[in-house]
Design a protein that fits this description.
Distance between the termini: 31 Å
Structural class: alpha/beta
Order of helices and strands: EEEHEEHEHHHHEHEHEEHH
Helix content: 25-40%
Largest sheet: 6 strands, mixed
Mean pLDDT: 93
Low-confidence stretches: none
Strand content: 25-35%
Oligomer: single chain
Shape: globular
Radius of gyration: 17 Å
Length: 234
């Protein structure tokens, strides 16, 4: 399967701290690619490198056939990469509708608009006039996902989407990711909840100390206790 996103041997730094030390990744369309690892190993830095917040000092990032590693983050977003950030980061003083509309400007053509986002998350239609600060954690995550979808991305980066959510809401999140994959969307998922990640992932990579130490079938992670214990602490 051809990769929509290819990350090739990137090295990313925070000042003098060498965080990503030659990370490579392939993410195809119509698939969920999970990024796993302990806290502090570079998973969020990988997301930031892809979206352009913390560009790599060396290496290549190719999206939809074109290099993006030297582009500004807003240009990368317009190329078709959406972000659901860790902690959701919706605007508490804006309504649900206003938060969603921000995600659609400037808007790419495609299936996602207010009507289709509300169809995916009926609860948001009910809460459209409520402010972001009035929402539950699960509702805020729906807004964060819907906001990213409003730009009609080809690839969705999701950074710890289950963080702080109740188990029932995590199950709903699992179903949402499966439905999004069925639409043809590619998803790169950073997730600490291993059962959730493995239940939706088509492929998985484990990062340890800034390097990819495993890339392959999620079933291998599920069945290899030594791999989980050594690199995931589970």
């Amino acid at each position: 399967m051809n990769a929509l996103l290819t990350v090739e041997d990137i090295h990313t730094y925070y000042d003098h701290s060498h965080v990503l030390q030659g990370v490579s990744l392939r993410a195809p369309s119509h698939a969920v690619t999970a990024i796993l690892g302990r806290n502090g190993v570079g998973k969020t830095t990988l997301i930031r490198s892809i979206i352009g917040f913390t560009p790599p000092r060396s290496g290549r990032i190719v999206f939809d056939g074109r290099p993006i590693e030297r582009l500004a983050s807003h240009v990368i977003a317009r190329r078709g990469i959406g972000l659901v950030p860790q902690g959701r980061r919706i605007f508490p003083s804006l309504t649900v509708r206003e938060n969603l509309l921000i995600g659609g400007a400037p808007q790419r053509s495609g299936r996602w608009n207010l009507e289709t986002v509300y169809a995916l998350f009926p609860r948001l239609a009910e809460r459209a006039a409520n402010y972001g600060g009035q929402l539950s954690g699960g509702e805020q995550q729906m807004v964060a996902i819907g906001r990213a979808l409003m730009a009609n991305p080809l690839l969705l980066l999701m950074d710890e989407p289950s963080e702080g959510l109740a188990p029932l809401i995590v199950q709903e999140l699992q179903q949402t990711m499966r439905r999004l994959k069925e639409t043809g969307l590619a998803i790169v998922l950073v997730e600490q909840n291993l059962p959730l990640a493995l239940s939706v992932a088509d492929s998985a990579s484990i990062i340890s100390k800034g390097r990819v130490i495993f890339a392959g079938d999620p079933e291998e992670i599920r069945t290899d206790a030594q791999l989980r214990t050594q690199h995931l602490g589970i």
